[in-house]
Amino acid sequence: MHFSIPDTQECKEDNGSTYVAYNIHINGVFHCTVRYRQLHSLHEQLKKDLGGSSLPPFPPKKLLALSPVQTEERRISLEKYILQLSQDPRVLNSDVFNGFLVSAQNETQRVGGWQDEVPIDVYLISGQKVTLSIPATLQTDDLLEKVCSHIHLPNELVYYFALFLVKKEENDLIVVKRLQDFESPYISQRFVKGKQRIMLRKNYWDMSIDQAVMRDRVGLNLLYAQTVHDVERGWILTNHEIQRQLAALQAKGAKKEYLDVARTMKYYGYLKFQRCTCDFPTPGTPVLISAGNRELNFRIECEDGSVKEGNFKVTRMRCWRITVQEPVEDSGKPSSSNNRNNRDSSNSNSSMQEGNRSTNNSNSSGENQEISRTTNISRRGTYSNNQEINRHNINLELSFEYLMSRDDMRWITITSPQAVLMSMCLQGMVHELLSHKRGYKVRTPSERVRKGSLSYMRRDGSSTRVTLNHTGESLSMDGGSSSQSPIGELSLRRLSERLNDLHLLSSSDRPSSTTSHNSMANQATVENDAFEILGDDTL
C-alpha cells in the first residue's frame, strides 16, 4: 500500500475562515482530504496502541500561520511521515489506522453518519445479486465475511475469495481493482467514475486449492460459475471438440466434471487484463497480458497477424515496482494542475514482510529511504468538499527486473491502468509460494479480532467515537436460520498486503528495459523472496 500527499487545497470553515487541507492518495488514487491536526490525532492514538518509540517522528506544530513555502514544507514532511508509517506492517494491520482511513474517506465524501444503514449490492459471477443493509463505513473484510455468511460459504473458504470492483465493456468484464480493508466498498463504489459493480471472485492462484473449494457445495458453485464465465469469454483457451464436451457437461449440470475438464485447459485460472503496451521486445509494443500459474503471460500480435507468446515466471522476478507517471508539458516541466512529487529513489517490493532482504542500506521500515524532490510546486486552490480532486489523467506503470538468462537481468515495463492490479496478482502468487513453503494456512474469519474504538477527529475539530465492533465471531446470516444457501442451486444465468512502493517520476526519469542491474543499484529495492526458489540447475 503506497501513500502520497501530492497536493493541498484551501478549504473554508462554516464561519468563513480558511485552512489548508492535504489530499491523501493511496495506490495512485485519491482517497481523502485531512487536516494536519487530524493526522496528529491519529499519530497520538497509534502511539498508545503500538508504542511511540517504534513510530516515525511527527512533523512539529507551528505557532504562527504558515507561509506558502512553509505549507509546502509541511506537505513534504507529512508525506514522508505517512510513507514511513506505511512501511510498518503493524500499522497497516492496525484497526485504528484502517478505521481512520475509512472515517476520513466518509467525511471527505460526506456520505452520512458513521452507523447510518445503507443498501449495497454485491454480485456473484453468475449475475446473481446479494443485497445487504450495512453501515456506510463498513470495511472491506467485514463486508466480505458478511456476504460469504449470507451465501453460506464455510469460514475456512472465505479468504479464498475477495471483493472486486468490475465494469462491463462491449460484453467483456473488466476487473478494475481489488477492494482492500482501508476503504469502505460502499463509498469507493459510489464515487468511482462510471458504472461499476462490486463482485465476489476467487482470490487464489494455486490450482491445488480447487480441490478444497470443490468439496463444498457453495464453493463448487462459485468456482463453476467463474469457470463458465472464463470459457464463454475466451479467457480459457479451448478448441471446438472441448467446447462441445463442456457444453454437454453443462447441459447435464455436471459441475465437477466440467471443472475437471476445464482445469486441464490453457489459461485456466488466469486473470485477463485489458490490452496495454510494454517495452518488450521493443518500446510501445501492444500486448495482451494474463496473470496465473505463477507467471505473467504476454501475447503479442505481429504485423503478419501471427501471435507470439512469452511467459515471465514470478520466481525469476528479482523485484518490481509501480510508477505513477505524470503528464508533462512540452517544456518538460510538470503542468501546474498536476503538481506531483518526482522521486529519484524508490522501494521496489515483491513479497510478504517476513524475511524480506534489502539492499544499499535501505530497509522495509523506510527509515533510511531518502526522497529527493525535483519539483517543489504545490497546487493549491479552493474546492467544495464534494468536488472531484483527482481530475487529471496519470499513467500507471509496472516495472519488474527479470532474470532472462544466467547473467542477464533486465527491466521490463508495462504501461496499463491495471498496473496496480497486476502488482497485487504478483504479490498474491509470491504470498502463496512462501506460505506453502513455510506451512502457513489461509486465515479464517474467527481469527480476525477487531476490538475497541477509535476517536476520530473531524476537520472542524470535533470528535466522534467510532466503534471497531468486529470481535472475531461469525456474522449472523441474513434471511433467518435456514441452512439453504441462496446460491445452492446456482444457475449459469487481512493481512494488509503491502503493494510495491509507488513513486512518481517524469517521462525522462522512466527506467528503460535496457537498464542494467548495476545502474539500478542506487535505488532502494526489496527483493522477492520467491526468487530464491530458482536455482542454477533450473537455468
TrEMBL record:
Record-linked Pfam families: PX, SNX17-27-31_F1_FERM, SNX17-31_F2_FERM, SNX17_FERM_C
Residue stretches making up the Ras-associating domain: 116-205
Residue ranges annotated for the PX domain, each copy included: 1-108
A GO MF term: phosphatidylinositol binding
Keyword Membrane: yes
Membrane topology listed for this record: Peripheral membrane protein
Main location group: membrane
Biased composition (Low complexity): 335-372, 505-519
Biased composition (Polar residues): 373-384
Keywords from the UniProt entry: Cytoplasm, Cytoplasmic vesicle, Endosome, Lipid-binding, Membrane, Protein transport, Transport
Keyword Membrane annotated: yes
Localization in the cell: Cytoplasmic vesicle membrane; Early endosome
InterPro entries in alphabetical order: FERM_2 (IPR035963), FERM_central (IPR019748), PH-like_dom_sf (IPR011993), PX_dom (IPR001683), PX_dom_sf (IPR036871), RA_dom (IPR000159), SNX17-31_FERM_F1 (IPR048763), SNX17-31_FERM_F2 (IPR048767)
Bilayer-crossing regions: none
Residue numbers spanned by region Disordered: 327-384, 505-539
Swiss-Prot/TrEMBL GO biological process terms: endocytic recycling; intracellular protein transport; signal transduction
Gene Ontology CC terms: cytoplasmic vesicle membrane; early endosome
Role of this protein: Critical regulator of endosomal recycling of numerous surface proteins, including integrins, signaling receptor and channels. Binds to NPxY sequences in the cytoplasmic tails of target cargos. Associates with retriever and CCC complexes to prevent lysosomal degradation and promote cell surface recycling of numerous cargos such as integrins ITGB1, ITGB5 and their associated alpha subunits. Also required for maintenance of normal cell surface levels of APP and LRP1. Interacts with membranes containing phosphatidylinositol 3-phosphate (PtdIns(3P)).
Similarity comment text for this entry: Belongs to the sorting nexin family.
PANTHER family for the chain: LD15323P, SORTING NEXIN 17 AND 27
Protein name (Swiss-Prot/TrEMBL): Sorting nexin-17
Source organism per UniProt: Petrolisthes manimaculis
